[in-house]
Amino acid sequence: FLGFAYNHTTREIRVAEKTLRKLPDEVPEEMPAIELQRLIARLIFCAGGLHLPLARFYFAIKSCARLCNDLNNGRRLPNESVRVAASVLRVLRDWNASAREPFNFTPRPAGAHAVLYTDASLSGWGAYLLLPDGRVFINGAHWESRGYTSSDIGMLEAQAVANAVAAFDGLLSQVRNVDIRVDNTSVEAALGSGSAKAMSLNEALADTLMLFRQRGWRYTTSYVRSAENLADAVSRGAESKLLTGDEAVSVYARRGSVPRWR
């Protein structure tokens, strides 16, 4: 009825057979415009139930959106044949295959969660990880490229999250439950929904969002003002302004907020 089957014993979620039968065994290179539109709609539906972040497939969504607009506005006939670009076809085939794979849902782990502050500047990125046992870890680095401008800050903030998760991979694996705090609303929204309107944010976050899904980690996102972001000094290379572990825990305790689970 809902389009998905859930195994209460194994916690396995899979797309129901009736829905799967409507997906092609393999996405063809050429198809009627209306069939491409239906395929995208069904794959988006499957992604929701299987917790597949749309950031991973956003390139195909963006490309096919133009065709769907033409179709809905009468500029293209429903049965008009459409040849799918090779780059889009690769993404669609990957998406179609992913929709056929079951997903093992991991409930939110009981107990305390870690808190991860990330930040980015035009010169570098920084991160503070506060573990439930009181340990504090700091990481960050300069960007390899020096040609960034203020228009790149959203992408850099997203990349800072990706870099931080990669840097603290081992520690996060121990907790599997983290609240990510950022001072960029676009990145906060992208983390919460699994995709962004800007392609650059999707490209920066896609692998990280898939990592959380594959590892069974749960996360929340929270917005913090730049002045309250513990990672701000790290991203700017201002070592003299870095907080010690005890200071960071104290600041977090004063500024802590109730997380919103995703």
Mean pLDDT value: 88
Q: Give the class from helix and strand content and strand pairing.
A: alpha+beta
Round the Cα radius of gyration to an integer and report it: 21 Å
The run of helices and strands is EEHEHHEHEEEEHHEHHEHH
| Envelope shape | flat
Q: Summarize the main sheet.
A: 5 strands, mixed
As an assembly, this protein is single chain
Condensed summary:
This protein has 262 residues and is α+β, with helices and mostly antiparallel strands. Helix content is 44%, strand content 19%.
Describe what you observe in this structure.
The chain has 262 residues and is an alpha+beta fold. Helices cover 44% and strands 19% of the residues. It has ten helices and ten strands. The strands form three sheets. It has a five-stranded mixed β-sheet with strand order 8-7-6-9-10, with helices on both faces. A hairpin with a 3-residue loop joins strand 6 (114-120) and strand 7. Helix 2 packs across helix 4 and helix 5 packs parallel to helix 8 (199-215). The longest helix is centred in the N-terminal third of the chain and has 18 residues, at 33-50. The model is unreliable at 248-262 (pLDDT under 50).
Task: Chart the SSEs and their pairings.
Blueprint: E1 4-7, E2 12-15, H1 17-20, E3 30-32, H2 33-50, H3 58-72, E4 81-83, H4 86-99, E5 103-104, E6 114-120, E7 124-130, E8 136-142, H5 153-167, H6 169-175, E9 177-182, H7 185-193, H8 199-215, E10 218-223, H9 232-235, H10 245-255
Relevant terms:
262 residues; alpha+beta; five-stranded mixed sheet; three-stranded antiparallel sheet; 44% helix; 19% strand; disordered C terminus
